[in-house]
Automatic annotation (TrEMBL):
<dbReference type="InterPro" id="IPR000086">
    <property type="entry name" value="NUDIX_hydrolase_dom"/>
</dbReference>
<dbReference type="Pfam" id="PF00293">
    <property type="entry name" value="NUDIX"/>
</dbReference>
<protein>
    <submittedName>
        <fullName>ADP-ribose pyrophosphatase YjhB, NUDIX family</fullName>
    </submittedName>
</protein>
<feature type="domain" description="Nudix hydrolase">
    <location>
        <begin position="27"/>
        <end position="157"/>
    </location>
</feature>
<dbReference type="InterPro" id="IPR015797">
    <property type="entry name" value="NUDIX_hydrolase-like_dom_sf"/>
</dbReference>
Amino acid sequence: MADVPGDIHHHDADRWVQCGCGAKHWGANGAAGLLLWRAAGTEVLLQHRAPFSHFGGTWGLPGGARASQEDAIGAALREAAEEALISPHGCRVWATHELTHPDWSYTTVIAEDIAQQAGGIGDGESLDVRWVPMESVSHLALLPAFEDAWPLLRRYLRPITLIVDMANLLGSRPDGWWRDRAGATQRLARSLSELDSVAAAPFTSELSRLFPEVLAVVEGQARGVDVQGVRIVAASGSGDDEIVAQARAAAEAGDIVLAVTSDRELTERLAPWVLAVAGSGSLRRELD
């Protein structure tokens, strides 16, 4: 094995785990890596792994073991800062993907570079760090697990817009909202603004959590609702027509579009523009 450089960062979870799958994995609490993209998903930041590391000489994501009391996103951002000189403040997280083993897990944090960061070699764990055109990734000698995951992960290197049918969401629970529709919508929008992520399961089985831009469409008596942290669009006419128009605009802009409604006719109208539609009950459970 190659010598280990002296500038490697260490913490309490830096050890091997003997997993029930029969293999050994790095990280007592699991591990995480940052899949950072830029330029509308046309480039990703990759690390050429140092010879001493597991599968040294291959290309993969900056990442490593999760420290105790550290979540996967925090671990991925910390590791990218240490290994690839990426500032967490310049990363906009959009989603996570989790590979789960019997006694270990690896979380890929999918994020967008919003600060035009160059990246670079941060410590001895990297032979090189560079932005790679997406179409060139598969031509590199990749870390085997990343090579397996890349065809799936590359589909999600875009912004995610979640369009919420507020009238349908409001009506999904008989809690007296009809007595003050505007006030009830305002409270519901405020709850949405406090939601930093949603479970991916109602929309796709390929990701674990989503951190979308939320666009809430309101209509009728709720048109005057305004809450910081949520983009609210007031329909001038039919709420359904506005939802379809917003979905089409987001899709044509290149976003991954998701929607929340239990309206079957609206769901059918949205089909050309959205990845998936989830029922209002799924979002209600997130808000409870």
